[in-house]
Amino acid sequence: TEKPLKVAVTGAAGQIGYSLLFRLASGALTGDRPVELRLLEIEPALKTLEGVVMELDDCAFPGLAGIEIGSEAETIFDGVNLALLVGARPRGPGMERGDLLEANGAIFTAQGKALNSVAADDVRIGVTGNPANTNALIALKNAPDIPAERFSALTRLDHNRAISQLAAKTGAPVTDITKMTIWGNHSATQYPDLFRAEVGGRNAAEVVGDQEWLENTFIPTVAKRGAAIIEARGSSSAASAASATIDAARDWLYGSAAGDWVSMAVVSDGSYGVPEGLVSSFPVTTRDGDWTIVEGLEIDDFSRGRIDASTAELADERDAVTQLGLI
Ligand code: NAX
Q1: % pLDDT > 90, the chain
Q2: 177 vs 2, which has greater pLDDT?
Q3: How far is CA 95 from CA 7, 45, 100, 103, 256, in A?
């Protein structure tokens, strides 16, 4: 049998962790290949995490090759092939944006350094914890020996939300929807793009044929879905975020579908006028653990404005963390 894939999950005792760990252990990412889970938490959450591990044990998952938990990143990240960085500091009452960036900066500088020294040579790192794009930027800048291409931030949940909204509008099954793109930041400025998406092979914006819906319903519904979930459920999206984290990692490691692409926030090479070095969401194809930005798409003026607005926000975040000395 194949060697287990060693997967680190941070924030493992949190809400997303409670869904993500069971999906990972059941083979949703690796199929028949076993997984070994390496779970990082802060000290006060380790007792909760022990309870989660008891439940994982109680599932008797055939593909779960081992579990290690702890609060030392250098121990937990040792030899990991995949690190899913979910744990982050949420915005507390009275916390300014600068405070939030600083609190998360402390987490992602330390985790970047730890990955740099102990992760496996083939490590891939996916950041779910918010502010995801800038946390990924901080981590990659603090891991100089790991190629920057090995880091990505999660916009797959936004991507999946966009597919679901478009399917509902057009009556098409989600499997008919291809070439969806989220551009920019995983934030309210993100741009879910219907001008390059397709419904059953036809241009999605044309199938919808309703610019008013596209601008005033579709885009804000996708961009503000997180807030709508909080409003309805009383807590933030967790199972869907875990599912998207798995989708993103699975496609990254095992490849995106032929004739389609996915959205991932990755380090910009300047494509589509996105300033080089920002971690911004693009349409990408993936294969064997590598991603490639889909090149040559025509960008209309409406889309240009939306992409520029979101990447300007990312540039501001980069300036802020540069000033804080985090990168
Ligand atoms: P929870 O607050 O339930 O869990 C976070 C966990 O992280 C806690 O158990 C906490 O103890 C742990 N943690 C904090 N600092 C840590 C550190 N230094 N090392 C290890 N663990 C640490 O949040 P949850 O709902 O699970 O969300 C986790 C993160 O995902 C948040 O930042 C959230 O904003 C973000 N999200 C990102 C999404 C995306 O699409 N990119 C969508 C869902 C979610 O909002």
Answers
A1: 95
A2: 177
A3: 32, 22, 7, 10, 39
CA of 258 to the centre of ligand 1 (A): 33
pLDDT digits (tens, 9 = 90+) for 45-63: 999 999 999 999 999 999 9
**Residue to substitute in 40, 41, 247, 279 for testing ligand 1 pocket (most ligand atoms within 8 angstroms of CB):** 41
> What's the CA-to-centroid distance between 104 and ligand 1, angstroms?
11
- Element (DSSP H or E) covering residue 303: helix 301-323
Distance 136 CA to ligand 1 centre (A): 14
Return the active site residues: 186
Q: CA-to-CA distance for 226 and 236, rounded, in angstroms?
A: 7
State yes or no: 17 annotated in a binding site: yes
Task: Provide φ and ψ at 161, rounded to 5°.
Answer: -60, -40
Q: Is 70 annotated as a binding residue?
A: no
What does pTM read for this prediction?
A: 0.98
Stretch (H or E) spanning 21: helix 15-25
CA-CA distance, 265 to 280, in Å (whole number)? Answer: 5
Residue with tokens 């551009």: 183
Pocket of ligand 1 (CB under 6 A): 10-11, 13-17, 40-42, 45, 86-90, 107, 128-130, 132, 154, 157, 186, 226, 236-238, 241
> pLDDT, tens digit, for every residue of 259-287?
999 999 999 999 999 999 999 999 999 99
- In angstroms, the CA 308 to CA 191 distance is 10
Q: pLDDT tens across 3-60, in order?
A: 999 999 999 999 999 999 999 999 999 999 999 999 999 999 999 999 999 999 999 9
CA of 237 to the centre of ligand 1 (A): 11
Report whether pLDDT(96) > 90.
Answer: no
Task: Determine the Cα–Cα distance for residues 221 and 229; give it in Å rounded to an integer.
Answer: 11
The Cα–Cα gap between 231 and 209 comes to 30
Q: Tell me whether residue 165 is annotated as binding.
A: no
pLDDT at residue 97, as a whole number: 78
